[in-house]
Amino acid sequence: LVASLRQAPTEVDRFRLLRDDQFLFDFVNPATSVGVTTGAGGRTVAATSENFPAVVGNGVSMTIGFLGPCGMNSPHTHPRATEINFSVNTTLRGGVLVENGARFAEIDIAPGSATVFPQGAIHFEMNPSCQEAMFVAGFNGEDPGVNQVAQRYFGLPPDIVGATLGGLGVQQVADLEALIPDNVILGVDECLQRCNIQR
């Protein structure tokens, strides 16, 4: 279907290929596990061209984050899209590092407000409260991609990682890699202690 939608010459032709029910995406109860990332700190649900064909040709996609108390969408990038991130019900701790030489910007995203994470920038969202949090991330591309920084960095050859970290040995790199949780993670110790949560 996605291939046919990409080859359709007009929006009218794309509409002919889609059933009415394919114009709706359920973030609370998605029809598939594709685009769903679940970890100890909560989950994110992405609607992209991979699992929501109606976005094909429209240049948009969206992710909804459901972060538990102290939950964090760990540092990551979107290689093919800029993100606008809207906090629904709690003040999120956000941060962004756009490139070498740029300063780090930490942003408190209050309920009802939004921030921008430029395409390719390393950024994160953390729920520093003891309540459930929700955010809405809109993208200016139907396939923004996602690259979790820590989790993917350790996918490089261990000797390269070790050299980059100041000469660590392959076993030391393996030991570090074993400590890195899958996203969505539990956040900082201060929050976990305040909310009485065990890592």
Automatic annotation (TrEMBL):
Listed name of the protein: RmlC-like cupin domain-containing protein
Organism lineage string: Eukaryota, Fungi, Dikarya, Basidiomycota, Agaricomycotina
